[in-house]
Structure formats: structure tokens, C-alpha cells
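Deviations from the work plan: none for this task. Representative record:
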Amino acid sequence: MIRFVLWRTGAAAVLLVVLSALVFVLQQISPGDPARAYVGGNASPAAVAAAHHRLGLDRPWPQRYVRYLWHALHGDLGISLRTHRPVTTDLGQFLPATAELVLFSFVLALLLALLFALSGALRWPGTGLYRGVLLLAGTAPAFLLGLGGIVLFYGHLHWLPEAGRGVDTSSPTGFVLLDSLLHGDTGAFTDGLRHLLLPGLALAVAPAISIGRILRAGLERTFGADYVRTARSKGIREVQVLWRHVVRNSLDATLSMAGLQLGFMFAGVVIVENVFTWPGIGYYLAQSIPQSDFPAIAGVTLLLGGVYIVVNAVVDVLQAVADPRLTV
Amino acid sequence: MSAHDLPTPGTARAPGPEPGAASRSGSATAPAAGTAGPVASVRGLSVSLQRQGVRSPVLRGVDLDIAPGEIVGLVGESGSGKSVLAMTMLGLLPRSARPVITGSVHAAGTDMLHGTPAQLRAVRRSRLGVIFQDPMTSLNPTMRIGRQITEVTGDSGEAVTLLGAVRVPEPARRMRAFPHELSGGLRQRVMAAIALTGRPRLIVADEPTTALDVTVQAQLLALLADLRREFGCSVLFITHDLAVAAQITDRIAVLYQGRVAEIGPSAQLLHHPTHPYTAGLLGSRLSLSTPRTGALPTLPADGVPVAERLRGCAYHTRCPLVLDRCASQQPPATPVEGTGVLRACWRDSTAVRDIHRAVVPAEGLAAHAGPLGAVHPSPGGSGKPAADLAVEVRALGCRFHSRSGFEPRHTVDALQGVDLDVRAGEALSIVGESGSGKSTLLRVIAGLTRPTAGTVVLRGTAQMVFQDAGSSLTPWLTVGALLRERLRAAKVPPAEAARRTEEVLAAMGLPASVLKVRPGELSGGQRQRVALARAVVVPPTVLLCDEPTSALDASLAASVLNLIREMRRELAMTVVFVTHDLAVARLMGDRIAVMAQGRLVEQGDAHDIVTAPADPRTRALLDAVPRIDVPAARPATGPADRPEAAR
Amino acid sequence: MSGTTRTTGMTGAAGAVDTAGAPLSAVPRRRFALPVGERLRPAGRNVSRVLVALLVLTTLVALLAPVLAPDNPIQPVGDLNLPPLSAHHLLGTDNLGRDLLSRTLIGLRASWFSALAVVAVGLLAGGLLGVVAGAFGGWVDALLMRFTDLFLALPGALVAIAVNAALGPGLLHTLIGVSVVWWPYYARIIRAEVRGLASRPHVEAARLAGAGRLRLIGRHILPGVVPTALVTASLDIGNVVVLLAGLSFLGLGQSAPAPELGADVQNSLYLLLGQWWIPIIPALTVMLLSLIANLGGDALRNLLEGDR
């Protein structure tokens, strides 16, 4: 068990290095000059050259990579070509909004997936429509779900707000829901929730289906297992059979898929934030792309990719803990 | 199927097309079990199930009573409906099979067909226990043993007591074990402990020993007999092997195609069968006393569509005593005077007795000791020159490293210092329990597994017949393509190849039409014939057989064994035959080599090994072979005399 | 680009498995009857055939899009922002007066063929790698699979964005960016399938029967992989269509005037609350393509599994 945790941690560290190397290589081949970002667009060639030297851009690439890695580890991801601010500062500002959206959406996805899998595997009557609608929505790109939601719930029904996070975005932790809960501010909480609902849903549908399908397949396979028959032969209640014997043994593939889907959500969030002008990292990235602001793009890739790698390592370790067969 | 034909399990549809035999009195079906009513009673039970969109009848009017403290054996080949009967009695038929049920089933005083789900749960919880076939898959892999027992008892003290009662060593410590940490035999004991929770009145054991080694099987049978004595519960013991049933049952019901062919006291039924099917089963059973010379007795295969068979007596297409009316009228169950036997056959019971005598030799070992087949090299003579050896194995070792995740590696010595000679033209049987290394040895000889020590010399070519014929044939290639590939590799010219293909199919008793067919469309027995055909279409020097019949029903197995013996005789092949069954080993080998834990513990003339084993491990194997005339684990008294048994 | 469903096709369905020992062993075994139609009723099989035909039809429409398009998709041809079902403009016109039907058709063509290209590259590159790794095993397998795992462990869509952004806009760059992260899935799936088949006794039996290594791979392993690969690939087309549309939506795709579904949505986003159909129509087209690919892939799986 400890060996596995150590190995998995080591693997995650290697992956982070690979990710940073990849981003570094991409930065080298990308157009745009980081030195120019420091000195401004109207600087003299001499000033640019000086900045070049100061940033170490005239050194051979192994040195540049070590330097890049060193700086990245100390929180220096360069200057954004677009905002002319340190990328780290930008990311720090936009991260909470994205984290809130992704977490909310992930929980939503898990709920939808659980409902999808249980209703399908247990053949709950009348739930076919739910599964059909979810499956259909799953084939749509996230921007269509977002746009459709805006047209319907804002444009026509006026039930939900169009975009943004709400009036008060100056919450101290950056998490609107958390802050309003801490302060007992029901109004702000409801408002935050109303703003989260559409983008959260648009982001949640596709992962919900992926997770739900895997879970459903797992449930149906487990339902046919001999030990479930044994459990029934014991005469325990069907609910107990379901939770203790079926669900417990259906989760392993589902956990991996959930981890994988979280990664896809980091990419999906770029589009959804763009549609809803959600002031998060994805919106920041979407703004950076047309401007070829590669330091910003690289920073976002590093941050979200790093989170993804760590999350998947944690999922793997959790899975090993959960399965006694792997920990003898 | 229309929607109204789809009940949930446990509900019955009364108006069925099958009238079933009229209810017989309890005294006729449940003899001599005291005055108490039966623990379980099945009346006119018919069940049809739907599979892959096709509905077919599985049980067709079954009557069965189980008296308190009685062990009833339910014997039948695969497809006879024995497991479905057990599941119906427990109310556990899978809903996905859309069962349609008529008749009545009562177990421990509960109507198992019309009871509410809560009633069925309650009776399963406290009055009924089950032991399933495969102890590897029947326990929840992620739940500790203790929890799986206390889930029912709610009391860990009780659970420890029960584990002790089923002879699990160190029960208190085992409570925290996960199933994968226990051996197969121990797991099956845990299953028995779960079955015992709530002091059941009836335990249904569905082929509980099929997945176990013979020595473990003997222990489990003894345990079941003990439990019956200690706990006073009845047991419905399901098996495909009459000899296993003979070990512990008081009565035996023989099931054929969803009907009871014959039911009666075990001794009576085993020694004086009154139904041709029972006689055929007994006759085709391979035992330590089956004659080694001549063809092995077989039951004729049934090539007739099921629907046609079910009009009359289902057995009429295979029956040697068939009458005209057998094909059109179903024989009712009628008692045989003075024996307690009920039989469903139009023929007189004496006629059956005659064919039984004709087929079955007197029980008793060593009645026929001769060597088998026509090619029998002069036995003995260890000083033979090496040129005479087809296979020469020297100091063979094979070590496997199993890595489970990131834990330290386990090393398993599948083979250790094995020395073995197989003379040209000889038939050698290798016997051992699972994990003894017998299959590994065969694979090393075939060149499929690389040894880690020692040498193997193979003089000539080798072909192999695998245990599971279905998976040894490439699913998307036709039988013709598979045979052609072998001929092509041996550079047989096309005209010659066509002739040989034709010949080999004829020899295997397969129609030429199978050439255009893919393996998935064949039955299990046909697939094994195709596998054998491929092996011998270009005759190899050595034919290696890895338990080729262990997945087949007894009657099919005998015919495949006959084919292997015939092919050996005609093609003068050397045969190395791996099996876990000493009776089969004796029939297939001039010599027998016994393996245990990767070592060769004894080898010698087949007759000598089974009559005078020298090694204790051989003796243990031999003692564990279930025999019809030796009721090893059967208590001297009849059904339990103490229903209120102590712990 | 949103969370993507990746289905592994018919894992584990390799070949006809002997059904003895199934819980309901009482049902008589098939003899010489062909197993056609076992999984699906005839009607179901016909529906499946129609759905698979839809895949082909979509490809045909994409192929003939320049012929089918009534107008030049780049030039303004009528009034601005005409609603659908207008005279001469079935789907209306966009904010620059270009015919929406023509733009949609040409955009569909780009989307569909781009997706096919990515899937084909993934299938070929990943498939080759998977077959080599699976068939040879040992250190070859270990090396190739560690390499594959490295790619799989990175967030694919995000890396695709980064690669694409680094290379700059352009359809070719987009395809490179997506292909770079897409092949590992195929390598994994096909390698697993090859390993599974290679360890089955029928391969050992064929080896003993005298089949050489190439013949073993070509005749006893690969035919078992093809259905899985085909089903996986066809189900995957939809995922790639959606991913590519997402990248195009973010401005990573063909440059401006060329019609592209994702970019067209982005460019007309400001019309959402007025002429909502202008951004919605190309978005719906993306969904339609993804739906066709998913249904077609599922149907293909049903047909192929029924044939086994």
C-alpha cells in the first residue's frame, strides 16, 4: 500500500515535469516575444534586447528550461502579453470563480450520473425520458447547451440571469456561495446559485453521461454476480443488497472515469465561461487565445493540467484504499 | 412474449398449458421420514424461462418432497433444470429470465411462489440456507468474512461459533479475512457457515463440490453429513455426478429435461435403477472399475430438436428400450412396489434391470486389469535405450513470479525437479489436483511455456487438445479454415489435404457440413471433436491432452475419450493425458504419473497405481474418488434423529 | 471539447463464449443454427442498418457540400439577418448577409472530414502502436505503453488547446493539436484487445498447429480486433466533432471568412437575444453530426455483436 502511494506520487511528479517541459517547448515555438511584454510595445530595439538578456532568452535552451522550471516553482509564470500583469496574479484572481463553477458542476454531474445509472439499472418506471433527454443533451457541444439555456431561461422565460457571477463579486475568498453561507446572506447565496445553475448544467451534462454510463454498466454487471445472489439468499433487504453488495463493487471503474471527466471539465470550462462571460480562468484563456498571449495560455495549461494530474493521483490512491484485493 | 406473460419471480401464472401430473400423496414421494410433514414440497412445478428472446420450458411438472433431516440428491446433466429447480425453491429466479411458473412450491412452511417479498426474505433469512457452486465468485470480494456472516446474524459471537461449526480453523481470526485470502475449500466452508445462520431447516447445495479438488470435495461432503446430524437440517444436494450423490444422500431424484425420471432411496436407485436414463448414466460413468479394454460405454447423443423430444418421454431419442408410444405420450410417475421408488417410464422395470446388468460390471476394483487399446508397448523395462523415448524430461523446474500490484513478488514453483520419460507409442496419464503443476508440465512439453530449469527433449512433433475446446478454436475462422491451416503448415498437397480432411471428419463422427461452420455454432462436444480433428489431421508423434473432457457432461466425455483412444490406436501416437480424475487416468494411460505441488510423487503401471499406491498423496487422491459402492461419509443411521441438535 | 464520452467498444466480447455454467443452463444449446439475429430482433437490425447507412449518407453530404450549397458561403448574397424559411434562403442569412444554409453545409463538410481525419490518424497510429505492443509484449510493450500512458495522463483537450495556440490558428494546426492527444486512446484500447486475444488458447492452439508469427497476428488476432476498433472509432467521431467545434469556437481553427461551425457561433454570439437562430443553427448542426456519429456507432456495435 505504502509502496503504491509512493509510486503514484512519483509518477505524478514525473508527469508534472513532462507537462512543464511540454509547455516550455510550446512556448519556444509559439509566436510572440515575452521580452516585449516586459518593456512594452513601443520600446526601442535596444531595450528589447536588454530585456531578452535579463530574461535569459539568449541562453541555450536547457538553461532556459531549468530557469523556467525554477521560476514556475516560485510562482513566476511570466508576464501576460495582453494584461501586462504577472500571469500568476491573473490566475490568482480568476481561479476561485473557476474552482467554484467546476466543483459545483462536478457535484451536479455526479448527481445526474447517479440518477442516470440507478434509474437505468433498476429500471425505475418513467425515468426513460430523463435518460433519453440526458443522452440527447450529451451529444450537444457545451456552447449549444449554454446558448440554448440563455435563450430559453433568460431570453424567453426570464427565470435565470444571462451571464456573470452576480452583483457582488468582491467576496473575500472568491467563492460566492461559501462567503454568503458564512455570512448568512441568503439573498447573495440565492443569487450566486442562480448564476451558477446554467453554466454548471451546461458543463455537467457530458461528464454526467460518461460517468453514468460506466456506473450503470458496473451496476448491471454486479447485479449478475454470484455474490449478489448469495446476498439475496441470505434474506437481507433489497436496499441492503444494493448498497452493501452491488454499489460498493461497481465503483472502481466509475471512480477512474470521474477523475478523467474532471480533466475534460477543465477544458469544457473554457467554453462555458466564454459563453457566460464567467470571470474565471477559462474566460481568461479564451481572451488570451485570439491575442496569442502564450505566457497566459501556458500558465493556464500548467495550472489546470497540474490540478488534473494531482486529482487523478488522488483518485487512484483512493481506489487502492477502497479495494482490499489490491492491498494485500 | 406479450407483456402479461412477464411476472416477477415468486408469482405464478396458474393457467398453463402443462397440466402436470396430479398431485401425488406425500407418502408416495417422501418415504420413511417419520411423521412430520415435509420441509419442502414441490407439486406439479413447471417453469419456463426466456433467454436471448426465446422462451423454453425448463421444468415440466416436477414433484418432490424433502423430509426433515433428509438429504435428497438432485442429479442431472447440464440442461436438466436442476439449478432452476433449486432457485425456484428459494424464490431466487432472476427476473431478467422472465420466469413463467405453474404448480406449487412450499419450503419451510412458506409458499415460495405466492409469498410476498418480505415473507420470502424472512424465510430465506432464517429457515433456508444456500451453498452455491463456485466459492470463488459467491462471496463478496470487498467485504470481510465476518461481516458477510453477521450481516444475517447480527451477532459476531454467533458468527465465530458457526465458523467453528464448519471446521474453519482459527475462526475468530478468520472473521477479519477477505475471501481472496482463503483457499477454495475454506471459502466453501464460509458459504456453509452463511447457510447455517438462522438455524435453517433446509440447505440447498447447488453443485457445492464441483469447483473443488477431489480431496477437498470429500471433506466438504463429510462436513455436510455432519451438519445434518448436528443441526438436524435437511439438505437438497444438487450434482451432476451420481457417485458424489451416493456419498451422502438418503434419496436421489434423477432429473432429465425438466422432469423427474426416477426418484427413490439412494441404495435402491444406484444398484437397481428402474429408468433407462438412470441405467445409462450409471453405465456410462467412468469409475475405477470400468473395463480398460474395448470402447468406453456411452449414452447416445441426442441430435433431435428439443421441441420434438418434449412431446413424449424426453429420453425416447436416446433410449435403448424405446417403444412406439414413448415418442408421443409422456409416461406418468408410477411407484415400484416395495422399493419406495417412483419412475416415469412405459417399460417394465425388469427390462431396465436387464440392460443395467448388461452394461455395468460388478463393482469392485481390479476386475479388469488389461492394458488398453491395440498398441501396447511392452510395459516395464526402465533400461530402454533413449531412442525409444518420445519425451524426455530432466530436472525440469518452472517458477512463476506473480506480481499483485505493488506488493513484494510471490514466487510459485509450478514445477520442481521433474524427471519423466514417455516411451514412443505409450499412453501416459498425469494426475494431480489443481495447482499440482500437471498442466504446466504439459505446456512445457508442448513448448508453450518456457521452463526455468532443466531440459525437455521432444522427439517428433506435438499437438495439444485443450481443456476448453470453445476457446481453443479461433472464433471467426471456419472449421475448414482451421483444418487447412494445419495441413498447409505441414505442407500437405491440396488434393491430399482434401482427402485427409474428409477422413478425419468421418473418423470424428462429424458431418462434412461443419467445414463451413464457425466454432460458435457448434455444441461443446462437437467443438472438442473439431479440436481433436485439427490435432490429428496431420498425425503428430505426441498428442498432449489437457483435461479435454472436464467441461463436458459425462456421456459426452466418454465418447471423446473413446475417440482419443481410437486415434491413438490408428495413428500409433504417443499420448500424454492430463486429468484430475484417477478413474479417467486409469482408462487413458498405460502408465500413470501422480503430481503434487510441482513434483512428481509417483509413477508406474496404471493398474499398480490404482490398486497399490505407494505414496500417501496418491492414496489420498484414490480414497477421495467418489464410489457408488462406498458410502464414505454417510452416517450409519438414516435421517437425523435429533432435530434439535446442539451446537 | 466538453466532457467527452469515450466508449471502448466491445471489450471482452471477443468471440463466442461457451455458455455452459451460466445461471440458466437449462436452455437448450444451439446446434447448427446460425446465430444471426440473436441479439436483435429483425426490426432492430433494420433500424441499426439504417443508422449505419446514415453515417455513410452524412459522409456523402459532406463530400457533395459544394454542389449542394445554393450560394457562395463567403459572399453576401441577400439582406442581413433574414430568418429561416425566407425566400431563396432556407435557413436565412447571417449578420453579413451570407446564406446560412450554404455556410452550414460547407462548415459541416469541414467538421466531418476533420473529425474523420483525426479519428483515422488516431486509429492508424494508435492501432499500429497497440498491435505492436500487444503482439510483441515484453519490453517493447512496456516501453510503448509507458509512452502512451504519459500522453493519457495529461489533460488531452487542454494540451490540444495549448499546442494549437502555440502553432497559431489554422485548420492544419488544429488537426495536429488534436491528433497529438487523440491516438493514445486507440493505442490503449487496441493493445488491451490484442493482449486479451493473444492470451486466449486459440492463439496457442494455432501456434501449435504451425502458424507463424505474422499469420498468428494477421489471422488469429487482428480479425478479432477489427470490430472493436471500428466501433470505437465510429463512436469517437462524435467526440471529435464536438471537440473541434469547441476549438473553433475559441478561435482556433480556420481563419475568418471560411465557414466553420464553431467560429460562426462565436462570431454571431452578440445576436443571441435578437436573431438567436444565427448562432444556434451552426451549433445545432454540430449536435446533429455528433448525434449521427453516436447512433451510427451504437448501431454498428449492435450489428457486429449480433454477428458474433
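DSSP finds 14 helices and no strands in chain A.
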